[in-house]
From TrEMBL:
Endpoints of the signal sequence: none
Domain GST C-terminal: 93-213
Similarity-based family: Belongs to the GST superfamily.
Keyword check for Transferase: yes
EC number annotated for this UniProt entry: 2.5.1.18
One example GO MF annotation: glutathione transferase activity
EC primary class: transferase
Pfam families with a match to the protein in the record: GST_C_2, GST_N_2
UniProt source species: Ralstonia thomasii
Protein name per UniProt: Glutathione S-transferase GstB
Keywords: Transferase
């Protein structure tokens, strides 16, 4: 069995939960992090010395013994996809897999960082304390990223090509967060078409119906 540590409001936990649903994995999720706390305990730090979520324990037997522990959300998505969805979420053809990997790295190094300030200011900061200049800089950076997605989705149905892969999970979670922020945006018809298809996936419904908090 798979155990997922992390609160579902975390965008990084959402990636892992969505992936587990796509793969029809029997799993248990435990709320830790944020208001739930629990990430600074010795027991949790033994699993992830960074004290961050998500963390998975995979291969739990009936006695609760753990075979494998892993942290870092995109690494977890890659691992689960490779172990339980080879040729499905995890492309076996080298070039297709490299393309999916490329977009997953882009999500974590460029796309999500571009929207951090807008998220923190608009969701986590009281209105009278918000920094409009920080919000605008973040908005512009994130729009440059969404323009990149818009362009690739104009040429193909999914981020890494003709079919749904692990790259759509991580980029889809990031896009859900961006679109959930209260601000005006230019029309992105291909991005919106892609997100509508993702929301229709049974495995995504728990995650992509959540408000951004």
């Amino acid at each position: 069995m798979l155990r997922i540590w992390g609160r579902l409001s975390s965008v990084n936990v959402q990636k892992v939960v969505w992936c587990a649903h796509e793969l029809s994995l029997d799993h248990e999720r435990i709320d830790v992090g944020g208001a739930f706390g629990g990430v600074d305990t010795p027991e949790f730090k033994a699993m992830n010395p960074n004290g961050m979520i998500p963390v998975i324990e995979d291969g739990l037997d009936d006695a609760g013994d753990t075979r494998f522990v892993l942290w870092e959300s995109n690494a977890i998505v890659r691992y689960l996809s490779a172990r339980y969805g080879p040729g499905n979420l995890y492309p076996l053809e080298l070039h297709e897999r490299a393309d999916a990997d490329r977009w997953m790295d882009w999500q974590t190094t460029s796309y999500s960082p571009s929207m951090v300030d807008a998220f923190l200011q608009l969701v986590r900061t009281p209105e009278d304390q918000r920094d409009a200049a920080r919000i605008e800089r973040s908005r512009q950076a994130a729009e440059r990223s969404t323009a990149i997605l818009e362009a690739v989705l104009a040429k193909q149905p999914y981020v890494a090509g003709r079919r749904f892969t692990m790259a759509d999970i991580v980029c889809g979670c990031a896009t859900h967060r961006w679109l959930g922020l209260p601000m005006d945006r230019p029309a992105r018809p291909n991005l919106e078409r892609w997100m509508a298809e993702l929301r229709d996936r049974r495995a995504a419904r728990e995650v992509l119906a959540l408000p951004v908090v």
